[in-house]
Design goal:
The complex is a heterotrimer of chains A (377), B (288) and C (180). Chain A is built from 5 helices and 20 strands. Chain A is mainly beta and 377 residues long. Chain A has 3 domains: 25-146, Nuclear Transport Factor 2, Chain: A, CATH 3.10.450; 166-171 and 182-279, Immunoglobulins (Immunoglobulin-like); 282-372, Immunoglobulins (Immunoglobulin-like). Chain B is mainly beta. Chain B has 3 domains: 23-99, Immunoglobulin-like (Sandwich), CATH 2.60.40.10; 105-197, Immunoglobulin-like; 201-284, Immunoglobulin-like, CATH 2.60.40. Chain B has one helix spanning 2-20; strands at 26-27, 32-33, 38-42, 47-54, 57-64, 69-71, 80-88, 90-99, 105-111, 114-116, 123-130, 142-149, 152-160, 166-170, 177-185, 188-197, 201-202, 206-211, 214-219, 223-224, 235-242, 245-252, 259-262, 268-274, 277-284. In chain B, strand 18 and strand 19 (214-219) form a beta hairpin. In chain B, 42% of the residues are buried. In chain C, strand 3 (130-144) and strand 4 form a beta hairpin. With 180 residues, chain C is α+β, with helices and mostly antiparallel strands. Chain C has helices at 11-25, 54-77, 89-105, and strands at residues 39-43, 107-123, 130-144, 147-164, 169-177. Chain C has one domain (36-177): Nuclear Transport Factor 2, Chain: A (Roll). Chain C contains 3 helices and 5 strands; from the N terminus they run αβααββββ. Classes of the chains: A mainly beta (377), B mainly beta (288), C alpha+beta (180). Chains in contact: A-B, B-C. At the B-C interface, helix 1, strand 4, strand 5, strand 7 and strand 8 of B face helix 1, helix 3, strand 2, strand 3 and strand 4 of C.
Amino acid sequence: MKYAIPILLVAVTVALMVLGLYVTGQAGITVGVTKGSALHTARASTPDQAVTNLLVDVQRRNWDRAFASISSTSGISEQAFIQDWMGSNGSLRSFSALEGFDSRPLHATNDEAQFRVRLHFSTPVGPLEDVRDIHLIREGDVWKAVWPKMQVSSVPAQVIPVNFLRWDLVTGSADDEWGSKNVDSPHVRIISMNAVESAEGAVVMGEVTNEDTIPAFVTVNATLVDAAGNPIDEESSFDKIAHVLLPKQVTPYRIDFPNLNLKNVKNVRMDVKASLVPASADPVIGVMNQKIDSDVQGKSVLSGDLLNQGGQTVNIPHVIASFYDSDGKVVWVSDGYVDRALLPQSSEPFAVEIPKALAAKVHSFHVVVNQFSLGKS
Amino acid sequence: MSRLLRFWAIIGLAGSFVGLCAAQDFHVPESAVAGEQASISTTGSSKGIFYLVGPGVSRRRDITLGEEVQLAPQDLRNAGDYLAIVCSGTCRSENFYVSASKPANLTFLVHPSRVPVAQGDAVSGVAFPFDQYHNLVLTTQNVSFQLTAKDALLWSRSVRTQNGVAWFRTTSGKSAGPVQVTASLDDLKTRRAVQQVASDPCNLRITGQRTSKGIIVRTEPVHDCAGNVVPDGTIVTFTATGTDGLGTVDAPIKQGVARAQIEAPGPTTISVASGVVMGNEIRVGAQP
Amino acid sequence: MIRAERGELPNHFVIAAISLCVLLFCPVLNLHAADTGVQVQLDAKNAGPRAVENLTERGIVRDYRFAWTSMAQALQSNTLDPLAGAFSGDAMQWLRQTVASQQESGLTRRYLYQSHQLDVVFYAPEGDVMELHDTARYRLQIRDGNTTIHDEPVVVHYVVLMTPGADRWVIRQLQAVPQF
């Protein structure tokens, strides 16, 4: 009797393990876990195992073992391989960690295979997802990944004059003479507002402009009000807005109200606040080759290239796009972070998603680039 | 017996009335000015306690009735309502007012700090005269307002204060640049600065040419409709439409001109806009 | 001679006793109604050059009431804490001086049954300052320790300057005058 419970526990554990492996195996997907060596096999005798081994080692930052899963035909050095995963130049990738992955086979033969992996990164700006196709070949009785060489912008050495515009804020002395600190807050104005329902809840979006001649730090809040005039919820745009607006600059904004229905909402009260802030007009970032397309997963995306026309590295570029219908009304605002740094005089691709239900309504769009540079005020 | 009781009741009543009318009589100043010494005369001969309660002051001191109670200037520096209380057995109180002394400061509020040129009633100012103790001077004063730019007088007006305030409103000047706004009252002068800025861009025009780095576009010097150069930092949006898709660059104006570099190998049409103002379009041929 | 019946007090004795009681106890039997809080009313019809917006009127009434409630608490308890956020500039200075002075002298003051009639006499074109005339009615009590040395209903005329703060209007100047 005294052995009955331990035996029962072991039996249940084994049964659950078998069930877990069997079910995920049947689904044809491999799920990555953050810790544990349960899924790492010594020899990747199948392409599925090769992908799993590679990604588990990357997750654990076991670079030597991860690079050992790469075929020598890739022509990539270990240093470049690590940099591809770890990021460089203070990019968003440098501060990210691979949390998990999903992979599924696209096609497979005896000697080569193609897998599509969805990589889940945790970053300082929230969870980010990346999709990559990994090509595998069989070398002997082991499968290995063919890793593409990373395209690194080659910026020739040069001298770029630093003559960008900069605004500094001087607050004056501590003497509080009434009326002496007469610097008005910047004039900003909300030029459009549209409240819609989405799959996740209610969304309020639009555009705001800086009508003044000095830079402004802008935040936009919205309060949903019911028929009795009572507030239902209040939210802010957080990072779905370019907070620092130069004179006459326009930014879209989007305010999400998760799990909220618009049917009880009678009114939307907008509140825009602008304050004085030191700012710089550098670098100028061009947005080239913008077009609406479908990505490898079949989602509608607005893609293009960011071109840094200045002499300063943009560590974390952030793209915010507004989409308009044929009447010029803002029907959606999307944003996305580029996880590679934007080097001077070089470009990086970007893509932001458009909800499938809205893609057909989009007549035109406008992209604004927000930027974060390390060590910059 | 009843006569005796009646007698003592009357004595008691009379005594209390006499007590109430006990001889601590005193006289407060009829008018007092902030920061100036004043005194209160008292009558009587016994000891008492003097209290002075007013804006910013609560004093208590022992006095001898019949002597003058001196009120120090620093106790009367705030204008307002003061209560003098003398207690000797019972307490008596009298109130008096302290008024502001002559103006020593002119508080001047001017708005806005930045104003587009040639805008009606765009600049306004409010002036309050205060004495040296920061009391609002409510007697009528003559305040002069002036607007000057580069030592040239643009506008002036003299206004009499009402309820301690004088104000003005006027049109902004025609030229961009700093304007000094002055309020003066006798020898007092307070200055503020207002920056007059150009209005929205007018007649936005661009030129462009293809180079090895792409298409370099630039605007002609950007002015408003009055001819003032638009402030540096104003964003101009260049939009390029070509076979490879759409390209946009938000470039700031520097020394009156905005420049941008656009990568577009094929034939491209480039347009420009700033705020709600649209400019011309140019067509640039494909890369040879 | 009138003789009282057994068990019955003579009338004149009763009258004397009652008079004495009234004299002795009248000051104590001060039948105060409960202080129902600061009452504020605002009349903005004479405001100029800028008209006072409805929302601003409500804000002024609310914030003026808050300011006087805070001031009464501060001067009754001789602490500065209640004043935070209600006053600025010279008014704040004056109140700091008053509290410090009271702490030194051991005096406190109470403003009871306050009612304020505010008239807007000036509202700046940019809305950054407002001048009001306050006809304030209250009962002013001055105490030296536990002894009340002054207790009187008063009507005081105040010239008030208010400016908009971060989230409320604050009193910048509070100056009593004999008349408007």
